[in-house]
Amino acid sequence: MKRADVLLISIVLIAALAFLVPRWLSNDADKGGPGKELKANITVDGKLFKTVTLTKEEQTIEVRTERGYNILKVHDYGIEMFDADCPDQVCLGFGFITLPKQTIVCLPHRVLVEIASGAGEDEVDGYVQ
Amino acid sequence: MGMSSSESATALKRTVIIAIFAAVAVVLSIVEAQIPLAGIGLMPGAKLGFANIMILTCIYFLRGRDVFVLVILKTLLTAFLLGTLSSLLFSLFGSMFSFIAMFALVKLGRKKFSVIGISIVGGLAHNTGQLLAASFVFNSTSIFYYLPVLLITGIVTGIAVGFAVRYVVDSLSRISLFEEFLNGPGH
């Protein structure tokens, strides 16, 4: 390894941590919970399909398009991809998401699930942290 | 038009090397696909980038247009075997991004960067390229939420790939097939 390598690694690490640390610190403040349920926007191919409120009660949302189906499950103030017939199944690996700006993506079906930011309004360019 | 016999022998050797490298890259991708990364809590879709070993090694031996052919071959073959049409477009975007970044760095900065730094840049460029493609498809930048995590995993896999490339280049340099490419673009 040369000096430029070490410099490159440190710069990238610092940049990544600069994004991650505020996220860890602010976790509790804007987390959903009783009385302040978050909303999740489901878009298909860039167009809004549905906005769901993340409740404690279980809800099942089916997204059926000509590309295939995705089944999402809402429970305990979060949402997860429960089943899909896409070939790669990557979307199932995103797990259960509960925090604003977290996303679940199914590339083959062009389905994007994004939890709206704490205030609940639709953000156009929500990447200022 | 007329190629001397030594020129056509070199051209044949290039073709053979590209074919072997493409085959190994595809096998590495298949091996990699068997490793369940999501199971150990990593970002879904994150890959180890084994195939990058062959592409980076190729940059060290052959010309840019040969590596370009290798990248296209590897991406098409892998997509036919493992992926779908949409994943083909994404991996093509990521691979080209990564190839251009690594090739530029080998050309411009190889005195400053070792093979490890170059492989890290390749991995990061691949991740960024795919996220860019995804953000175009979804018309949304929210997918960049995962960039910081991908940067960190990209560094780790980049270091591993870099060490592998160092060994592969050393070993191949001792094979007679590669002799005349030793002073190629990467050296």
What report would you give on this structure?
The complex is a heterodimer of chains A (129) and B (187). Chain A has 129 residues and is α+β, with helices and mostly antiparallel strands. Helix content of chain A is 18%, strand content 36%. Chain A starts with a helix and ends in a 14-residue tail after the last strand. In chain B, 72% of the residues lie in helices and 0% in strands. The mean pLDDT of chain B is 85. Chain B has helices at 5-33, 51-61, 64-82, 85-109, 115-138, 147-173. In chain B, helix 1 (5-33) packs antiparallel against helix 2 (51-61). The A-B interface holds A 1-5, 8-9, 12-13, 15-17, 19-20, 43, 46, 87-88, 90-94, 101-103, 105, 107-108, 110, 112, 114, 125-127 and B 38, 44-45, 83-84, 86-87, 90, 109, 112-114, 116-117, 120-121, 124, 134, 137-149, 151-152, 154-155.
- Quaternary class: heterodimer
Q: Using only CA atoms, what is the Rg of chain B?
A: 17 Å
Rg of chain A (CA only): 17 Å
Instruction: Output the number of helix runs of chain B.
Output: 6
Mean pLDDT of chain B: 85
Structural class of chain B: mainly alpha
Greatest interface and its participating residue counts: A-B, 35 and 35 residues
Low-confidence stretches of chain A: 125-129
Alpha-beta classification of chain A: alpha+beta
The geometry of chain B reads as globular
β-strand number of chain A: 8
Quote the distance from N terminus to C terminus of chain A.
33 Å
Report the order of strands and helices of chain A.
HEEEEEEEE
Strand order of the largest sheet of chain A: 2-1-8-7
Strand content of chain B: under 5%
Distance N terminus to C terminus of chain B?
29 Å
